[in-house]
Amino acid sequence: MSHKVVIVGGGFAGLYAAQSLRREPVEVTLIDRRNFHLFQPLLYQVATGGLSPGEIASPLRFVLNRQKNARVLLGEVVDIDIQSREVILADLSRLPYDTLIVATGATHHYFGHPEWAAHAPGLKTVEDATEIRTRILLAFERAEKTTDHAERAALLTFVVVGGGPTGVELAGALGEISRDTLRADFRSINPAEARIFLLEGADRLLQTYPEDLSLSAERSLIELGVRTRVGAKVTAIDGGGVTMITKGGEDHIAARTVLWAAGVQASPLGKILAERTGVGLDAAGRVGVDGWLAVPGHPQILVVGDLARVVQDGAQVPGVAPAAMQQGRYAARLMAERLRGQTSGQTRGQTIPAFRYRDKGSLATIGRNRAVAMIGRFRFTGYIAWLLWLFIHLLYIVEFESRVMIAIQWGFAYFTFNRGARLITGDSGRTRV
User: Fold this and answer.
1) Among 18, 180, 256, 269, which residue carries the largest CB count within 10 Å?
2) Cα separation of 186 and 152, whole Å?
């Protein structure tokens, strides 16, 4: 009887775990609520009209259709029966496992203010991206129509909360949209007059980057017209804008478009794991795993990706795509080695080394010819960093056809300054302007 591996989540960690088991004598079942793998690092380009959703999403069945020991199920895991070793789906069906790999990722975190979500959408899903795109484009449309100067100013004010890579990339793209993409599209307004604020609670942007790269990124944003505010702690977000506390006291920005890029929390499945196994969770809801990515006391349950709290050299392994990929591959290797009669390190005769994250570098793009990159001991800024960002992101796109389409889109946008996916869609798009 084949060893049954159930993988929950088709993101980077889950998909890489499934693919890494393609030559092993196991039955792999990948379960996800969506039927596609999403390349999240490029979601901001969908949100700003640079790419269409289909160009950064790949159907899971297509990705795994040649892997004969793998199948894909569309469904949502709502519980885990530890004793019976079964996952329970929303339709109450049960799926048995010998090894369970949980890779359900993370969602937005509003630091105790869930009511802010209605006014400041985050960026984790395709729906988030298209909602943000619609809000951005509708703001310009409504500004074109209104004759109220105060309302027009608020409509042409955009606030991005969070100065990490996502926030920096969103703010930079907004700067390019207002100053390049839309410059000739309107008659009553000048899009270049849009005010774009990037708020960060810490003392500088891109906290995980060296200080010189953070300063370089901030200079590039300023060149695009973005107004950066560091040391700004948001205290309220509503339909009228953002209230914050800075060194100078309380301040308010009147804005109709606020975007959230300030924090994430682990998926709800982490809480279910904690209730069923007694494993501890950190403040963000991540599952505390051992060095082998297993739930302590339950070596058959591995947690990988953004849902896992993995500590290395006294620090949390970052929740980035390369870390998720490495953890997915490691989980597959660990399981395969166990099947070959080796141990996990939780029993005597340890032969499998604990997981070790290898940081291959960090990149963030700010806009055309503007980026920062840190690869090993080397640091790059400007055009070279931007080219590195383009090449590495294309390299990790799952489908070859998507790589080609994205490369063509980027080339077209570079020479024309146009963003071809500037569509107003969804319920917001049907709202009277």
Assistant:
1) 18
2) 14
What does the mean pLDDT of the chain come to? 93
Query: Which of 58, 54, 37, 35 has the alpha carbon at shortest distance from 45?
Result: 54
Concerning whether 169 is annotated as a catalytic residue, the answer is: yes
Please count the helices (runs of H) and the strands (runs of E) in the chain: 12, 27
Hey, where are the domains in the chain? 3-33+75-108+264-339, 114-262+361-429
The answer to whether the beta carbons of residues 287 and 270 sit under 8 Å apart is: yes
156, 148 in Cβ contact below 8 A? no
Per the structure block, which two tokens stand in for 235?
């205290």
Given 55, 131, 169, 200, the catalytic residue: 169
User: How many CA atoms lie within 13 Å of 328's alpha carbon, on the beta-carbon side?
Assistant: 29
Render pLDDT for 227-241 as a digit per residue (tens, 0 to 9).
999 999 999 999 999
Residue with tokens 């019976």: 84
Q: Which pLDDT score is estimated for 431? A: 53
The domain made up of 114-262+361-429 has a fold known as FAD/NAD(P)-binding domain (3.50.50)
